[in-house]
Amino acid sequence: MRIIVRAVVAFAIATTLAAPSHSQTLAPVELRILAINDFHGNLRPPPGGIAIADPADKTKKTIVPAGGAEHMATLVKELRDGHNNTVFVAAGDLIGASPFLSAMFHDEPTIEALSMMGLDIAAVGNHEFDEGKDELLRMQNGGCHPVDKCQGPHPFLGARFHYLAASTVEKATGKTVFPAYEIRTFEGIPVAFIGLTLKGTPNIISPESAAGLEFRDEAETVNALVPELKARGVEAIVVLIHEGGLPAGDYNECPGISGPIVDIVKRFDRAVDIVVSGHTHRAYVCEIDGRLVTSGDKYGTIVTAIDLKLDPVSRDIERQSQQQYRPHRVLCEEPRSNRAAGILRQGRRADRQPSGGIDHGDAFARAQQRR
After folding, report:
1. Is residue 6 part of a domain?
2. Cβ-based neighbour number of residue 8 at 10 Å
3. Residue 2 domain flag
4. In this structure, what are the phi and psi dihedrals at residue 232, rounded to the nearest 5 degrees?
5. Pairing relationship of beta strands 189-197 and 236-242 according to DSSP bridges
6. Over the stretch 9-54, which tens digit does the pLDDT of each residue have?
7. Contact 348, 331 (CB under 8 A)
8. What is the rounded distance in angstroms from the CA atom of residue 302 to the CA atom of residue 276?
9. Which of 9, 128, 152, 220 is a Cys-bridge partner for 324, taking CB atoms 3.0 to 4.6 Å apart?
10. Residue 261, SS3?
11. How confident is the model at residue 299 (pLDDT cuts 50, 70, 90)?
12. Residue 307 maps to which CATH number?
């Protein structure tokens, strides 16, 4: 499979995977996957933005403002528009190591913001375990913090999206902390999403947080699930994994990549089609062992859009090429497709809040109540 990069990307990456249909009578089913990773509770745009190659001199880097919940929500909304089948996924570390605005409330505002954006599925990352398994379960299921209790104007309801943890097992029960996978059906075609974190998680979280948990090998975990998914009629498999690599080149290039993700992907069963990765805070769209492997930087600075065509006969993913969209700066106009907040474009800056449905007012209200 040959992946052809045809345009420059900084904030929104759109990847089109298409091939001639195997069916002469049934049209392929189109699916857009939107993906993020390593948001780390950055409700406000991070000070550092994102470093990209200077358009005037590719040997130099330039910093452009990007990221944060409002800008990401706007982009996600725009990337959904015009697509009947979409799913919004994440590859871990959505919370933990967060700025004060989110951390002060144990990342409840971040969970609420991502839920409002319509996030569907997320793999757990190592930072999801920063406050231990029970606190992570509260992030999913809701309820008051055991020490700080309920601080906001309303009870914390928990995430409306679903966490997945295929490789994280409770030693006492032998069961995974969260489901190993989730199957979504699009016009009759099932697509499986497997979510997991890195095997080395116990080495980078506190012993208290890791107590009673086993973090199993990533590839072995995924490969053991393939027969079960096949038995359920699944041919299209997407892995959301909180482990990554270190790419060469700019964020929209992949002349080479190193790091743990390379060996892991090579060990995956051939049934795995796409890998959404994270952890290294780098941006890349690579082909590793014939599979598409992506990562979207950090802090909401990039949203990856993967466009698939699902064959109605084989029920697998057809793929041929990929296309990327250039980012633009949001002006004070109505949202346009392929436009991202805070990136280069001629014109003036917006003075009003970008659209997308995320408002920090609730978090600020909590801060005022706590003072």
Report:
1. no
2. 16
3. no
4. -95, 10
5. parallel
6. 334 445 555 555 444 578 999 999 999 999 999 999 999 888 888 8
7. yes
8. 13
9. 9
10. helix
11. very high
12. 3.60.21.10
Strand partners, 87: 33
Place of tokens 């299209």: 236
**Contact between residue 22 and residue 312 where contact means Cβ atoms under 8 Å apart:** no
What are the structure tokens assigned to 96, written together? 């933990």
Task: Identify the DSSP state of 145.
Answer: B
Query: For 266, how many CA atoms within 13 A lie in the half-sphere containing its CB?
Result: 7
The identity of residue 235, as a single letter, is: E
64 forms bridges with which residues in the sheet? 50
Q: Residue 135 and residue 123: Cα distance in Å, rounded?
A: 16
Assigned domain for 1 exists: no
316 domain-assigned:
yes
Instruction: Measure the CA angle with vertex 312, ends 306 and 316; round to 5°.
Output: 50
d(CA 25, CA 130): 52
Q: CA distances (Å), 198 to each of 137, 168, 266, in order?
A: 19, 9, 16
> Letter for the amino acid at 51?
A
Q: How far apart are CA 95 and CA 103, in angstroms?
A: 9
| H or E element at residue 29 | strand 29-36
Find the domain containing 286 and state its range: 12-370
Return d(Cα 47, Cα 168) in angstroms, integer.
33
Question: Rounded CA gap, 75 and 28, in Å?
Answer: 26
The neighbour count for residue 232, using CB atoms within 10 Å, is: 11
DSSP element (H, E) containing 53: strand 50-54
Q: Name residues whose C-beta falls within 8 Å of residue 134's C-beta, 6 or more positions apart in sequence.
A: 146
pLDDT tens digits, one per residue of 208-222: 999 999 999 999 999
The tally of domains found in the chain comes to 1
Distance between the two ends of the chain, CA-based, in angstroms? 57
pTM listed for this prediction: 0.84
Would you say 348 and 30 are in contact if contact means Cβ atoms under 8 Å apart?
no
